[in-house]
Amino acid sequence: xxxxxxxxxxxxxxxxxxxxxxxxxxxxxxxxxxxxxxxxxxxxxxxxxxxxxxxxxxxxxxxxxxxxxxxxxxxxxxxxxxxxxxxxxxxxxxxxxxxxxxxxxxxxxxxxxxxxxxxxxxxxxxxxxxxxxxxxxxxxxxxxxxxxxxxxxxxxxxxxxxxxxxxxxxxxxxxxxxxxxxxxxxxxxxxxxxxxxxxxxxxxxxxxxxxxxxxxxxxxxxxxxxxxxxxxxxxxxxxxxxxxxxxxxxxxxxxxxxxxxxxxxxxxxxxxxxxxxxxxxxxxxxxxxxxxxxxxxxxxxxxxxxxxxxxxxxxxxxxxxxxxxxxxxxxxxxxxxxxxxxxxxxxxxxxxxxxxxxxxxxxxxxxxxxxxxxxxxxxxxxxxxxxxxxxxxxxxxxxxxxxxxxxxxxxxxxxxxxxxxxxxxxxxxxxxxxxxxxxxxxxxxxxxxxxxxxxxxxxxxxxxxxxxxxxxxxxxxxxxxxxxxxxxxxxxxxxxxxxxxxxxxxxxxxxxxxx
Length: 515
What we know:
Layout: E1 25-31, E2 42-43, H1 51-56, H2 61-72, E3 77-83, E4 91-100, E5 106-112, E6 119-124, H3 130-143, E7 149-154, E8 157-165, E9 174-177, E10 183-188, E11 213-215, H4 222-232, E12 243-250, H5 252-260, E13 267-276, E14 280-283, H6 289-303, E15 338-339, H7 353-362, E16 364-369, E17 376-378, H8 400-420, E18 425-426, E19 437-438, H9 440-454, H10 466-474, E20 477-481, E21 486-490
């Protein structure tokens, strides 16, 4: 071979790449009817083509939740823990009572549970007696093949019965729109549903599995959920945290009480104002509470999914990159997010601004019409966290996007530190070339590099610029203990936060030349 001096070798090695966050997973908990799923077991990987119907029964509580979520999100892994009705349970029943005889033709639209999915239109000819009107509604209910309720008519009294035993049907709202001369309608909400499935050890089937979002039914006790999620928030040697979502339909006063009773950074409560008007009883936002939770879970998971098209759920006019999902969206506020599959709230019946602020303080988020009344949008999304374990006021985890941001930063550091130093020698001396080793300087440098990435275009989670970088370095302490092989790191990480308000003073002037 020819002489080639000096000997020179260039070896191509893989580029140094960072590891992002885990793919999103959503867990739905609720009741099933007849289906191929095993009650109490984990059903994984629910597809996009209506598999929930065969798995859980098309009219089941959990099928409703998955169906609504899949309208929004077809990329996230959806799993479920489906529960059988308690054998001793009682199904909720309510009534819609017609009286009189129509003196002119007309149309009534009667919504049961959902103004978006189950607004049933009944055309009533002139001369129709109450019993026949009841038959018309009964026929319309039968035609709603996926509805989680059935009906029967007796002399104009239509009894609406939940398909499930238990408390599920107790908060189903009714609404009547339109009027027919000679016909009156009286609504009585269901209240007698009783005995939910047992929740003991329900989460045993997901031990070690991480779900970033868990959809929790309105009528299930929160203790089971919050105990599970709070213990997952800072586990050792893993990232297992997630957020539970529950929607409550109740009076303003009861929602304040419900919010104040909770104190978890892993729980989001959405409040829906309960009405008791003649023609509208139940939530002002007429939708099954668990379906509202499912829709929010689908939106949240889509926002945090790398590469997902989220242009329908973010206002990206001034930030084109925010039309694509990923870890960077963790720091983007949730308020003004459209909920495209919910019916509008009637004028004047939602929460007032004063009530909304009080609910936020109590840890309850709200949804409402946008200003142009074209869509339901979210207000600020808060957790129920108010105080730390010592009882001190804590605002760090008040807003969900702050929780999302903090968790994403931690997961990013966790994944990359574990990968970078997967098999390293620890030394207080110099590093030996071509040997897997780490010392204080290398660890500090790598932490700084990860911070810089988190402050860049791809993440936008921590504050950028020389002042922020200096703050991070000044407050980043790395200590080595060679006898135990432990590296102790303390860091202060200045995250970005949401812009919540503008406070401005405007003075009127009648001159452009004087003071």
